[in-house]
Fold this protein.
Amino acid sequence: VVHDKGVNAAQACEEGGYCSWGKVAKGWRGDINESKQLRKMLQDISYKKEIILTHFGGTRSHWMDVVLQLYTEMAHMGYGHFVVLGRHGRTCDAVGKGAPDANCAWDSSPLHERMFGDTTGEGAQEVLWHLHWRIIARVARAGVNILTLDNDYILFRDPYVHLKRGPFAHHHLLCMHEGGSPINCNAGFIYVQNVAPDGPVSWVFKRATEVALRWMDDDFQFLYSLGRMDKHSPHL
């Protein structure tokens, strides 16, 4: 259980200027499937048009400790504009038991079980990655900057000191280098800032979300035609 005794007097967030603890909602819960609920979440939690997010799919796994640790780090650094994205309301119930002040949202959008395998189970990591890309696209289009972190991430100092100054301040999409990968973009750290709703960065995340939905909506006929999916397989 996380016992929150307040943020340290010398907050790590002061240098960057994004100390939001005590200035935004605490313990926010809600389904952001509908746009009005997403806007409500951003209105209540975002600070200076910034929000920090991690995603988590289970309720009892050892990853819960990791999520609560990240929440504790955010709190003690002074960041109240932090939210956990889950697949179900019960995920947020579990987070709330460990940290009542932690903000948590879930997305109940219907998804085809053959696209993502087990869409209702404790893990359902493929579903969470899909929702991860989706929420980045939706938040960016709403005009809010979003920093997403893997839940096992550790911040040693204020990231906004770097993200808002120097050369990074003029970049709209930042991610970590993925060693040994031709993609060279590790999704464990993604920052999107100051993007146009119809611009190229918004398109990247819209595309990542849309491809999966299009496959689902045509009942996977396109994938069958490419020979990349067996009609008898339970999922991709």
In short: The first strand starts at residue 29 and ends at 31. The helical segments are 35-45, 63-77, 89-98, 113-116, 125-141, 160-163, 200-217, 221-226. The chain has one domain: 29-226.
